[in-house]
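idk why but the lab printer keeps eating my pages so im just putting this in chat instead. protein + cobalamin:
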Amino acid sequence: MDDQGIPSKSGERLKIASNIVDKAAAYGIKPKNIIIDCLTLTASAQQKDVFETLIAIREVKEKLGVKTCLGVSNVSYGLPNRDTLTSAFLVSALTMGLDAPIMNTASEKSMDAIRSFRVLRGIDKDSREYLNHYSSMKPMESASSIVETASKEANLYDHIVKAKKNEAVHLTGKLLETMSALDIINAYISPALDLVGKKYETGDIFLPQLLNSAETVQKVFEVIKNSRSNESSSDMDKKIILATVEGDVHDIGKNIVKMLLENYGFYVIDLGKNVSPDVIVNRVKSENVRLIGLSALMTTTVFNMKKTIEILKNEFPDITIMVGGAVLNDEYAKDIGSNHYGKDALEAVSIAKRHFSKQESKKSEV
Ligand code: B12
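predcted complex ->
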């Protein structure tokens, strides 16, 4: 404000702020060390000017490079249910760039607004503060005691459940000195993902936590993959296409299947996740592949798996399709038209072995 009081228009407030910045510069004070208060007006008495404060915040920040503060609660003075209006104004001001709200931290609504804003603005990384405050999550430590296969000090399971990426990566390197990749998967990775999945289902944890555990597993797999880089060569006559079906982004299981098939010398063409039937059809054609492995993890995407199988069988009547994924079982796999169901990666290997030995014997009969 100046001698005339608080101007109603944002442009005039910017002018006053600009004068302050110029004066301060004469004393060697830089804009970044100045905090300007654009002054909240009450919605009850000066409704048309309320938004000007918000615009002024944006302008003084952008044009002058200063910081801003604002006493937000004045906006609701003279109206009922003040907390609601104040918290809406608070979020609007933060969106415009308000740095330092002067607010009632005992107001739950305002604190809810701040926490939500920090998630939406990407300040609260992985929504950790938000989750800590609102989720009724029990401490993950207690969950880790379920695993019986893991020894006390080698707790890759805990690192995955708690999404401690660096620790998980380090420990995987150590475990690989004494354990096979498959044993590590069976002893630690699958049980940890099972627990995380159950906790997600029961609402004890939320999507960012599920995602973090999944990312930890991806990092663990990078270590496993790197440790195998010089191993076994694959047989180009034993080609298999693998894909997670359209609409489904779960590829951890499919990647394990791939790893094991490659370990056994099969040549795997991995089409990735969320793969449309067209893409699979084209690769089957261009690579002349006769064994396809499809993965689906959700009840909703099993329908896409069925559709993919129908399309493939139509195009290539002699094709063999094996399917897998936690939502399937032997019976359901038959119902949707597949030739084989593999409950885990080892079964995928035995299906592939049987398939190619049949092919061999057919060839030798000819
Ligand atoms: C990790 C995970 C994720 C990660 C996936 C990361 C990734 N890159 O894969 C992220 C966080 C991205 C995710 C997202 C979602 N997820 Co999720 N996820 C899981 C979780 C916890 C683990 C899955 C897993 O990797 N298991 C470990 C692997 C090793 O097991 P597997 O996949 O079954 O594979 C083995 C076998 O089945 C078999 N196999 C697998 N494929 C194949 C293929 C062939 C050919 C053969 C022979 C064998 C085979 O061999 C594998 C190795 O032994 C499960 C819960 C669970 N326990 O299954 C939920 C789960 C699958 N997710 C679920 C849901 C709902 C979702 C979301 C919709 C959440 C959301 N609201 O956004 C999204 C889905 C987005 C999408 N469009 O796909 C639900 C599905 C419910 C349902 N029945 O439909 C589950 C069951 C969680 C739950 N309990 O609610 N998820």
